[in-house]
Amino acid sequence: MNEQSLLKDWINESRNIVFFGGAGVSTESRIPDFRGVDGLYHQEYRYPPETIISRSFYRSNPGEFYRFYKNKMLFPEAKPNPAHIALAKLEEMGKLKAVITQNIDGLHQAAGSKNVLELHGSVRRNHCTRCMKFFTLEELLSSMGEDGIPRCSCSGLIKPDVVLYEESLDEDVLSRSVAYISHADMLIVGGTSLTVYPAAGLIDYYRGNKMVLINKTVTPMDDKADLVISGSIGEVLCDAVGV
What we know:
- Belongs to the sirtuin family. Class U subfamily.
- By secondary structure, this protein is an alpha/beta fold.
- About 30% of the residues lie in helices and about 20% in strands.
- The strands form 2 sheets. Strands 3-2-1-7-8-9 form a 6-stranded parallel sheet, with helices on both faces. Strands 5-4-6 form a 3-stranded antiparallel sheet.
- The model has no long low-confidence stretch (mean pLDDT about 90).
């Protein structure tokens, strides 16, 4: 039996599937992988990315933060790709119980997924740091002044709900992710290098015997997986789910 057939069989017989994904899920929507050739870590700014997207830099230099953030981290025109659509279908079938994602683009929800745990937050949610008023991504972009800094009508600075360097992951999201993974009868991991912690460490909580890794490149966890498939995650999932 080949790898794709085995994946189909496991999906058919499973009733409590959890998906854990990273940047590779969104590259097929033309959102660059952070560390890819055209990604976040290949650019020309006065400061390294780790500095610019840190909490302290956001506070001290919001203009430069938002110049980088708008140019490198916002893709408002991006649409869900076959991977997002296949996962939404799998949830609709009652098999997929949760999508746990490291991505901040909101494309899983746009595709129709309901139970999405966003480890690193979302560009789709933004709040005024003074009055806590909520802003959509579109409202954030339209509220940017001539200096490129988005401000609320109360003059407060607007902050995106994304986890910056020097910030901790949301404890509730982490604990719910652990619960879903530890109770899953099948774990599908896709589009992630599994090198970004603490998020990557979550898969260690899986206790079953159907952990599938779908990625275009090798990961440090390949030898611990029960099935490894190299290829396009969109193509692999669509074929397996029958979308």
